[in-house]
């Protein structure tokens, strides 16, 4: 921890922040009485704030991003080497790191073959929506232009992707939105949307088919889903869900877009979340863990069949994908992503994620036995949620203030955890855990012991 020792003026830093920075997703009124917290240094699983307090980070940078942990010099070196060689050229041309990373990535994604670079998860998803619309315009006579998205899923922050937002408070006030985005129901077995169903996963998937039939299959171009819903409550679908979803998409010629912005790059213990379920998507988008936050990069990956729809009819001067992302040509991104992937492989982090995930699950289930406030534990790999309820029988969600008090207590005790936020009124009651893929047994045990202590302090 060097920063505070070197800085004589933490107060000036905090005041500069208070006076001039507009924080993401924050109500700034609070900073009139409380200092903003500035994170200044990280190493491995640990991070320090400007006042020198140390935390164990169980969120991988707040939003499931820093998969390989903080302070990776080899990624910084790879980025530096690339920047001094060539920092940038527009993505209409190829680049060395872009080509090498695409090849490496595609090796992990059988059935997919093309990588389109941009620089945020939102943007990667927008690219899919534009591709689907262009396919509709040029190959389906203007039909198949609708895009289905799911209740509780989130795909980003720009107006286009907010049109496909299943979390009401995220897009309230920001409309009107573009037409043709249609919501399908969720598959959260714990909240039992399909009482009496023989197979919950099949019932939830069939609800998607009902929407396709209602809208008209010739109007529906794509279905966009998170493999495991992240911010909407860490929702792992029942085993039967995904195969049926795939079957329905094939039946109605609907392209399947899986948003791996959170689950991609090892978070669930496989390279991608969809690989837990044996599905074959037409589009995969990824961002956060792609370079673990060492550079801004996202990818939209698709099949040769989709790619060819934009290539084969070269006589049509409007047929190519008429899109550019200026900073999709920034070469720090693929350089960092390549080294990030090498680390995941060389340090066997998928295997570690699997093993530490089992430990995390076991610890959370043990906590559930001691704390009636935990109603459900869901997740996979190093990606877990613990849904908190006021009463197990009625499953009434625990009040948001108490959920936030648990998060704050953990922070006070030196462990950073997350929670689903206000975007889900009445359902913002799930604690979220996504420690880095380098977690050790001691890290996992400390995280869950701290949650236990916080639950006792807040809920008794
Ligand atoms: N998709 C999912 C599933 C996400 O969780 C997020 C961000 N939380 C996004 C897309 C948007 O990514 P970004 O913030 O990089 O635009």
TrEMBL record:
Keyword set, alphabetical order: Aminotransferase, Pyridoxal phosphate, Transferase
GO MF, any single term: transaminase activity
Gene3D superfamilies on file: Aspartate Aminotransferase, domain 1, Type I PLP-dependent aspartate aminotransferase-like (Major domain)
Pfam family, one: Aminotran_3
InterPro entries: Aminotrans_3 (IPR005814), Aminotrans_3_PPA_site (IPR049704), PyrdxlP-dep_Trfase (IPR015424), PyrdxlP-dep_Trfase_major (IPR015421), PyrdxlP-dep_Trfase_small (IPR015422)
Cofactor needs: pyridoxal 5'-phosphate
Family as reported in the entry's similarity comment: Belongs to the class-III pyridoxal-phosphate-dependent aminotransferase family.
Name used for this protein in its record: Aminotransferase class III-fold pyridoxal phosphate-dependent enzyme
Source species of the chain: Teichococcus vastitatis
């Amino acid at each position: 921890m060097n920063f505070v020792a070197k800085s004589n003026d933490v107060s000036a830093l905090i005041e500069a922040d208070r006076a001039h920075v507009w924080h993401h997703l924050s109500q700034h009124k609070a900073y009139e009485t409380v200092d903003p917290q500035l994170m200044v240094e990280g190493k491995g699983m640990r991070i320090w704030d400007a006042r020198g307090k140390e935390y164990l980070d169980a969120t991988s940078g707040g939003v499931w991003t820093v998969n390989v942990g903080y302070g990776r010099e080899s990624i910084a070196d790879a980025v530096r080497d690339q920047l001094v060689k060539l920092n940038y050229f527009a993505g209409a041309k190829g680049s060395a790191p872009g080509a090498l990373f695409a090849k490496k990535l595609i090796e992990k994604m059988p059935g997919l073959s093309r990588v389109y670079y941009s620089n945020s998860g939102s943007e990667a998803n927008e690219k899919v929506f534009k591709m689907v619309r262009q396919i509709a315009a040029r190959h389906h006579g203007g039909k198949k232009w609708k895009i289905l998205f799911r209740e509780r899923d989130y795909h980003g922050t720009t107006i286009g992707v907010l049109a496909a937002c299943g979390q009401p408070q995220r897009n309230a006030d920001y409309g009107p939105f573009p037409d043709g985005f249609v919501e399908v129901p969720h598959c959260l077995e714990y909240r039992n949307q399909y009482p009496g169903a023989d197979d919950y996963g099949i019932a939830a998937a069939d609800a998607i088919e009902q929407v396709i039939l209602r809208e008209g299959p010739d109007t529906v171009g794509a279905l966009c889903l998170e493999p495991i819903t992240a911010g909407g409550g860490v929702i792992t679908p029942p085993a039967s869900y995904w195969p049926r979803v795939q079957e329905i998409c094939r039946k109605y010629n609907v392209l399947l877009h899986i948003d791996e912005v959170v689950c991609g790059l090892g978070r669930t213990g496989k390279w991608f979340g969809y690989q837990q379920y044996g599905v074959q998507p037409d589009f995969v988008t990824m961002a956060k863990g792609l370079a673990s936050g060492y550079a801004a990069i996202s990818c939209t990956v698709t099949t040769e069949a989709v790619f060819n729809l934009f290539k084969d009819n070269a006589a049509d001067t409007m047929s190519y994908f008429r899109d550019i992302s200026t900073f999709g040509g920034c070469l720090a991104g693929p350089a960092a992503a390549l080294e990030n992937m090498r680390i995941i492989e060389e340090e066997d982090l998928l295997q570690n994620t699997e093993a530490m995930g089992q430990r995390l699950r076991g610890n959370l289930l043990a906590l559930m036995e001691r704390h009636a406030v935990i109603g459900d534990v869901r997740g996979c790999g190093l990606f877990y949620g613990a849904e908190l309820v006021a009463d197990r029988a009625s499953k009434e969600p625990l009040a948001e203030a108490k959920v936030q008090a648990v998060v704050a207590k953990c922070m006070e005790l030196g462990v950073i955890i997350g929670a689903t936020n206000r975007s889900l009124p009445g359902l913002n009651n799930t604690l979220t855990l996504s420690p880095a893929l380098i977690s050790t047994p001691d890290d996992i045990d400390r995280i869950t012991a701290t949650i236990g202590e916080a639950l006792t302090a807040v809920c008794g």
